[in-house]
């Protein structure tokens, strides 16, 4: 007989819900319904076929999720916690879908809003907020990942124009983007450029054969004498501060999103263990299974609590990049552990797309690497603790 503690929600063990205000809960619940009704019935097929349905962009835009933490230009202007909760619910559906939301809002829209000209903002942000135009972020290169300062992509002046040459790699949304925010080395330092993807000399090649993030478009960007007008440059920033600030925005969404993936795996494990019967009773009644479930519950609830706390710091203007690294590092690590434990609870069924666990588990391998690897965030924390950088 099921004797769960009265009033205790096994999926919100610490009652984090009580820490949220009415608007935050409404936003979370709206996104949760969308994911359950629109995404979960289809995501296994999208993942298996390796497709991202472009029409989902407009649906996300109609919900106000694209650039939702930005002000003006058609953006919702929500607080940071609401944005994080939306990322959590979207990634409970799939990491690829949350990656789309993060890249669109935090990596493409954010730099245009923060560093762009008024013309750039008015041209792109309303369309991007609506999902009518898709953006991507060109920083990583084939030989420049964790060390963006070694990028080889160049931007040189030619009269009043700029000419870009170089290659970017592992670019989410690249093959479906209408606009790319590309970072390149200019004479005065690293500069950002707003590049319409139909500009002559700009081309993309999608990455195939992926066993992770399959419901997400990943591409190579190639720029061969891409000529841009002088006003294509982002006027508000010079140097690596520009792209690094964008990455910090995206990592904030990731630390919430990873908790969503972990929660989805934990929920699947609980439901399966209560329904799966062996030796005459549900496997949930065996000690070793209960140990797995208890460990997963602790990890999931701790991760969500950490995420909400960091969101409150961000809304108060007190969040610093090293704290974002703390959240990204630990929440992704915890999510991977939860996914692996959940896979074990489901046995052989855990490796099929009938259940979400193996999909989340493989996706999280990518999440652990992008937006700063586990190792890089470890060194960020090490420098914050000691005052001594150890990257080289």
Keywords:
single chain; 10 helices; oxidoreductase; 392 residues; Butyryl-Coa Dehydrogenase, subunit A, domain 1; 9 strands; AcylCoA_DH/ox_N_sf; 3-stranded mixed sheet; Glutaryl-CoA_DH_mitochondrial; EC 1.3.8.6; Butyryl-CoA Dehydrogenase, subunit A, domain 2; alpha+beta
Describe, in plain words, how this protein is organized in 3D.
It is an enzyme of class 1 (oxidoreductase). Residues 136-226 form the Acyl-CoA oxidase/dehydrogenase middle domain. It catalyses: glutaryl-CoA + oxidized [electron-transfer flavoprotein] + 2 H(+) = (2E)-butenoyl-CoA + reduced [electron-transfer flavoprotein] + CO2. Residues 240-385 form the Acyl-CoA dehydrogenase/oxidase C-terminal domain. This protein is of the alpha+beta class. The protein folds into 3 domains: 16-129, Acyl-CoA dehydrogenase/oxidase, N-terminal domain (Butyryl-Coa Dehydrogenase, subunit A, domain 1, Orthogonal Bundle), CATH 1.10.540; 135-232, Beta Barrel (Butyryl-CoA Dehydrogenase, subunit A, domain 2); 241-386, Butyryl-CoA Dehydrogenase, subunit A, domain 3 (Up-down Bundle), CATH 1.20.140. It contains 10 helices and 9 strands. The protein has helices at 22-49, 55-62, 80-93, 95-115, 118-129, 241-275, 287-315, 321-346, 357-369, 374-386; strands spanning 135-138, 154-158, 161-172, 179-186, 189-196, 202-206, 218-228, 277-278, 281-282. The strands form 3 sheets. It has a 4-stranded antiparallel sheet with strand order 2-3-7-6, with helices on one face. It has a 3-stranded mixed sheet with strand order 1-4-5, covered by helices on one side.
């Amino acid at each position: 007989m099921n004797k769960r503690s009265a009033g205790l929600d096994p999926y919100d063990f610490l009652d984090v819900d009580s820490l949220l205000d009415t608007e935050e809960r409404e936003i979370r619940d709206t996104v949760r319904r969308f994911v359950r009704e629109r995404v979960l019935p289809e995501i296994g097929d999208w993942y298996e076929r390796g497709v991202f349905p472009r029409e989902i962009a407009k649906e996300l835009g109609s919900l106000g999720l694209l650039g939702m933490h930005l002000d003006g230009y058609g953006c919702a202007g929500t607080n940071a916690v609401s944005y994080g909760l939306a990322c959590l619910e979207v990634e409970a559906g799939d990491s690829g879908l949350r990656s789309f939301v993060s890249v669109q809002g935090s990596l493409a829209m954010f730099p245009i809003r923060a560093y762009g000209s008024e013309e750039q903002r008015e041209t792109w942000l309303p369309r991007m907020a609506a999902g009518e135009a898709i953006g991507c972020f060109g920083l990583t290169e084939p030989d420049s990942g964790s060390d963006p300062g070694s990028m080889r992509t160049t931007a040189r002046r030619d009269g009043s124009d700029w000419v870009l040459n170089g290659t970017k790699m592992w670019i989410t949304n690249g093959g479906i983007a209408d606009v790319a925010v590309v970072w390149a080395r200019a004479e005065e330092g690293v500069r950002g450029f707003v590049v319409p993807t139909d500009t002559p000399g700009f081309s993309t090649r999608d990455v195939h054969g992926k066993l992770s993030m399959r419901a997400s478009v990943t591409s190579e960007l190639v720029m061969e004498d891409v000529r841009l007008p002088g006003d294509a440059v982002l006027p508000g920033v010079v140097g690596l501060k520009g792209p690094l600030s964008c990455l910090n925005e995206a990592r904030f969404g990731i630390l919430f999103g990873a908790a969503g993936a972990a929660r989805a795996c934990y929920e699947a494990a609980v439901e399966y263990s209560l329904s799966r019967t062996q030796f005459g009773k549900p496997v949930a009644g065996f000690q070793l299974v209960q140990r797995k479930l208890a460990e997963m519950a602790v990890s999931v609830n701790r991760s969500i609590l950490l995420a909400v706390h960091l969101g409150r710091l961000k809304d108060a203007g007190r969040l610093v990049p090293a704290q974002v690294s703390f959240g990204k590092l630990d929440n992704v690590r915890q999510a991977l552990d939860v996914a692996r434990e959940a896979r074990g609870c489901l046995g052989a069924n855990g490796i099929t797309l009938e259940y979400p666990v193996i999909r989340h588990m493989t996706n999280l391998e990518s999440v652990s690497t992008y937006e700063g690897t586990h190792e890089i965030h470890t060194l960020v924390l090490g420098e914050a603790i000691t005052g001594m950088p150890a990257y080289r």
